[in-house]
């Protein structure tokens, strides 16, 4: 029968679990400006599993600095600041291509919150 001292030595030296590197290469302690503007202010954002970031801004402050694709317009008579809005108030940032694409939100995202479901779906609630 193995002595407790031998078992302790064996466990410590031969059954060491692989170390998990917690820090990613992006955590090197520096900050880089990737884009001079994304067209909106980042009110809140959500990192997706696919290395994209969905960034939200509110809709009740008038136009943003990024347009929706051609002929797409958010018509909302309840939004007194701007009833016919051709600008985006949300964008999706793609880390790999370092680019943004405008996303359309139908209602104001001010005071909303979000969660990534286990299968990767972004659920955005409130506002
Ligand atoms: C939008 O553009 C104006 C004029 O250049 C600038 O003052 C403002 O900071 C910009 N806003 C955003 C969210 O990029």
TrEMBL record:
Keyword Cell inner membrane: no
Gene3D superfamilies recorded: Galactose oxidase/kelch, beta-propeller
Keyword set includes Ribonucleoprotein: no
Glyoxal oxidase N-terminal domain span: 43-127
Signal sequence annotation: 1-18
UniProt entry keywords in alphabetical sequence: Signal
Protein name (record): Aldehyde oxidase GLOX
Organism: Sesamum alatum
